[in-house]
Every structure is written in C-alpha cells, then in structure tokens.
Design brief:
single chain, about 400 residues, Rossmann fold, formyl-coa transferase, domain 3, 2 domains, three-stranded antiparallel β-sheet, about 15% strand
C-alpha cells in the first residue's frame, strides 16, 4: 500500500524533540527521512535517560526512551558538520531532498554553508524548516531556550495549576514537553502546505518556514488567550476545574478520581438524576450553564460530598448510562491497559536491532485508503551511514575510507 507522502525525501538536521517529531511525522506518512547525527555522540536526546532500552541480554543500551519516542521511520547517518567534507555531504543530500528540517540557533548553519540561501540556490524546490526558540526576527531571536522556558514565557503556566490560595497552588508547567509537541504539529502542517504550494504553482519553487517555540505556545493559548484580549482580564487558574461548563472537573471518589464535563442544560438534567440528586436540576441557581458557572462555589461542595460516597467504577457506570462525558484519571499502566487504547492499537510492537521487540506509541491518524502501517525502529547511531552515502550519493568504498580518515563521518 502506498503511503500518503511516499516518494518524498527529508533531510533531518534537527535534534532533541520538536524537530525530530516533525521528521518522524513525515516518516510515518511515508517520506524517506535521513537523520544526520554527530559521529560518536549522536542526537543529544540519546543521553536523556534513564530509562534506556535494555538489549535482549538485559544490558542497558545507549537508546534512551526519550530518543526512541521521536525517531522511528528514519535512517541515521553520522556526519561532522564542522568539516568541509561533512558540509559537502549535507549539500549533496539536500540537492536530492524535498525538505530540510533544522533547529540550530539563528545564523548557526550559515557559517557552514548549510542555510536556506545556500541550499535553495542548489535546489530551488527545497522546503526548508527552521525551528528556534524565539524565531528569526526580534530582539530575542539570538537567545537559546527549551520547552519549559516557553511554557512559562508563553502563558501556559499562567493558566495551569491550582489557585494561589490552595496548597501547592501557583503557575505549573505541564508534565509533557507540550511546547515542543505542539510546535512539531504546527511545523508539520506548514511543511505539507509548502509542498502543496510548490507542486501546484509553477515554477515549483520551495520556500523557507520560520517556526518559533514561543509563537507556537502563544497561538496555543487559543480561547484562553482571546478571552484575555477581549476582556483585559487573566483567566484564573482552576487546577482540574474546567472553565467552559459546570460541573467540569475532577472528583474524588471512595477509591480514586474521575473527570466529567456537563456541557449543556440537557446533560445537566440527566446528570442530576444519575447522581441521585434530581432536586439540583430544579434549583434556580443551577438551571442554566451560565448560572452553574456563576454559582460553582455553591454547587461543587455538594457534588464532592456525593462522589466521595461511592467507588469510581460505580460513578463511571452511572454517568455512562446517562450519556455524560466522563472518564477515569488513569496512571500510565492503566492507560496502556485500557481496552479502548488496546483496541485502537495505540501501542505497536516493532522489531529492533538490539532486541526482539520494541513497543512504541502508534501514530493516531487513521486513513481509510492509505493506513500508516510502517513502523521502522528508531535507528542506532550511524546505522545507515554507509548505505545512504553509497546508494544515494554514489560514494565509493575508497571515498568512504577517506571520509572516515578525515573524521567527516
């Protein structure tokens, strides 16, 4: 079966997370992805452990869980960009590629002749993506940064966490590398749009894409950001309480927590019956969604006391029968044991050179005609160096030996 982006070649110069996730997405979609890594060291994320993958013999390898999460469906080629020979290799691969992905600091690759201006002169059809912390323009463009910096600076922490007056309250970062992940999705969309433009409009010219982690975080503020822009008031942090309806939050049951959302007035009436408190539906303070939000502080304690009387399984069953959106607060072992997660195939086993089977998280996209069923394991460092240089660039064994002697590969 042909995959959607089959026939596309991607040169991945990125490392750590946001850039590698973009390249992984394109690889999942069928593109050939050539990942460039530093000889002897590789992607920084290879060292981001523990945990590290254990071999078939039970020994730790250099493959960290962090690295494994973002590098499937790629070929690893080790090239030293600081050498003239290495730079030449990258330029030659770029001439045969459709996309370049990089996340170096602003201006860094121009020193090596690997910037957009240089590579697009060699290959005008090239779509070139640069991911940086602050973007290519502005007074802060030169600054470095990682995910947590932009969760803080971009407003995510301002709207995340418990209220200041509660124990442990205050701005809180996400437990996930949320900015990197979301930036990778914006960047993937941008690349697909640029490729469509290139292939639709003559003369088929590529373009440069400037994606900033800060911009992506600000864009992700979505309705919370627009609410501020129209009101001039910051939305309060509510912890596990939602802002778009009431009740919409986590409740502690006798044996754990559940989360539920009552999104409209008809759901509210069914909810009151399901929890055995139909009188609440007739209470004028709670009869509409707006009133329930306004009177949340009066409603919540009553519901908290009710949910504490029975198990989470009891309440989830009752809420499901009433067609109220709800679910358990799962630990990770419970996530991957969940019957729906298993039926959807979200944990996928793949072979790996160092052990019989490696389990990865599946791509969530489901196509009807071109299913994303290719899951090649994240490569070991330099696993494909010789095969790519030989098959793609026609480098001979003698030339390969010279490149090794020069420490270019």
């Amino acid at each position: 079966m042909t995959l959607p982006m089959q026939g596309l070649r991607v040169l991945d110069l990125s490392r750590v997370l946001a850039g590698p996730l973009v390249a992984q997405m394109l690889g999942d979609l069928g593109a050939e992805v050539i990942k460039i890594e530093r000889p002897g060291e590789g992607d920084d994320s290879r060292s981001y452990g523990p945990p590290f993958l254990k071999s078939s013999e039970g020994r730790d390898t250099r493959e960290s869980g962090f690295y494994l999460s973002a590098n499937r469906n790629k070929q690893s080629v080790t090239v030293d960009l600081c050498t003239p020979e290495g730079q030449d290799i990258i330029r030659r691969i770029a001439q045969k590629s459709d996309v370049v992905i990089e996340n170096f600091r602003v201006g860094a690759l121009a020193k090596f002749g690997l910037d957009y201006a240089t590579l697009s002169a060699l290959n005008p059809r090239l779509v070139y993506l640069s991911i940086t912390g602050y973007g290519q323009t502005g007074k802060k463009a030169h600054r470095p940064g990682y995910d947590a910096i932009f969760q803080a600076a971009g407003g995510h922490m301002a709207v995340t966490g418990a209220p200041d007056n509660l124990p442990g309250g205050g701005p809180t970062r996400s437990g996930l590398s949320l900015v990197d992940i979301l930036t990778s999705l914006y960047a993937s969309i941008a690349i697909l749009a640029a490729l469509n433009h290139r292939d639709r409009d003559p003369p088929g010219k590529g373009q440069y894409i400037d994606i900033a982690l800060l911009d992506s975080m600000v864009a992700t503020l979505s309705h919370r950001g627009v609410q501020y822009l129209i009101s001039g008031k910051s939305s309060p942090r509510r912890g596990n309480v939602g802002g778009g309806g009431s009740p919409s939050q986590a409740f502690r049951c006798s044996d754990g927590q559940i989360v539920l959302t009552v999104g409209n007035d008809s759901q509210w009436k069914r909810f009151c019956t399901a929890v055995g408190q139909p009188e609440l539906a007739a209470d004028g303070r709670f009869e509409t969604a707006t009133k329930r939000i306004e009177n949340r502080e009066a409603l919540t304690p009553t519901l908290e006391a009710k949910f504490a009387t029975r198990s989470s399984a009891h309440w989830l069953e009752a809420l499901e029968l009433a067609d109220i959106p709800s679910g358990p607060v799962n630990e990770l072992n419970e996530v991957f044991a969940d019957s729906q997660v298993r039926e959807r195939g979200m944990a996928v086993p793949v072979p790996h050179p160092l052990l019989e089977t490696l389990t990865l998280i599946a791509n969530p996209i489901r196509f009807s005609n071109t299913p994303l069923d290719r899951y090649e394991p994240p490569p070991t460092l330099g696993q494909h160096t010789e095969s790519v240089l030989r098959d793609l660039l026609g480098i001979t064994e003698a030339e390969m030996a010279e490149l090794k002697q020069a420490k270019a590969i």
